[in-house]
Amino acid sequence: RQHLQLPPDQQYLRCIETVHLPDHDPFTIIICMFPAMSHLLLATRWPSIDTAFKRADLYEEFELEAWFPEHMKSIICTRAFITSQSAAAHQYLFQSILALVEHDTGHPVHFRHIHGDGFETIVADAHKGQALGLGQLCASMSHHMGHRCSYPCACELRTMAPYKHLQHCFMLCVNHFQRGIHKLGNDVSPEVRTAMHSLVSTSPLPDLQGTKELIHSGGPQAAAWLHDKEIGSPFVIPAIYQPESHIPLAIWKACPSTSNGNEQAHRNVNRDGTGLTLLAAIMRGMHYHKRAMATVDLMHSSGIHQR
Q: Under a CB-based contact definition with an 8 Å cutoff, are residues 248 and 151 in contact?
């Protein structure tokens, strides 16, 4: 109640809700963002997503971040906390964030492959619930549309399944992908490891099927790795291998290939503390974002960049 008495432009805690969806355990979402952060999110073309589990006990911390050349820095546009990792929960979270952005700016968030403008790509890690939730969001936005995708593939929007939508907008953080390969250690041979790394490519491989067969024959760990990428997480290979994606090559090459901005943002905010109570995490996050928005205002008013 005290927070709601603040002027609208100073309100940071925007949503606290315990959600009851059909055939789903109740979960809680908390969305934290100043209205100025909504304007930043609407302005970007290449947001990235990262999650962490250190900040507040029992909650997954979710960040939407983007690089802004005019400010010469990456800026967090949304911080949220959620108690479920399911696709349905993340779809609800995305819908709630986009509704707040539209409320603050008066303009809906668009995806380029659906609307012809707006978000071109979203870079994230391999969080299955998060990725599928994003695909479900896109499917819910386009199921009533009679036109086709604005990209050369010209897919019919209203018939596109969630994973099909991800082929048009989702890119996997290369660092996260390569880190997963590194964790396999000596369970895979150098030759198989090289084949895994070769899947990160903007050019068609000479023998993609042969590369997959080499990985599959590289032992149980390698076979399980490939099975996860093709069956368990079918969005992964199109998100690292551009020839199987519908994202135009020019956009693919222009957008960031990692979520390093999010990683740095998490590192910065975690300096204020980890393992916090939810209230402490929200309060310290509010002070952090006040300082971040002050640097944006300084740039707008005087042209001075501040690290």
A: yes
